Amino acid sequence: MNKEAEEIGKDAGEPNPSSAFYSRRHLRFGWWSLLFFLSLGIFLEMLHGFKIGWYLDVSNEIRRLMLTLAHTHGTLLALVHVGAGATLAVTGKVSAAWDRIGSNALIAASALLPGGFLLGGIWIYEGDPGYGIFLVPLGAIGFFAAVYLMARQVGGK
Description:
Residues 1-12 have low confidence and may be disordered. By secondary structure, this protein is mainly alpha-helical. The chain has helices spanning 3-12, 17-49, 53-56, 61-91, 96-122, 135-155.
């Protein structure tokens, strides 16, 4: 066994019970949110297919953009949850930082980032997104924190 493999074996050790909890938590959240954002995408396609003016009129271009961004970011974050759950299952460990901050930051990001776009697109004001758009930067900060903490955990630092 080479030195790197020995280090990985030492790091992984026995599966941590909290890693199983967080793995299932993010797999469950990821698959359910993927279903939700898939449904949103189908709904948006229906609005497009039936030529609904609330969605397609030129005066509602910002609405169409915001709702598309909500669908796209929500789908991406759902897949990140599935990846996080799989990563936690494979590594078998959870750092204290992930336990305290990372998991909740990723879930918050998955609500705030697409939710801000969604709310910003439902209520628009004279060509500008609604006030829900102010949730987006908070979600982006949570997403950054969660990815950073996961990268540190997997990197062993």
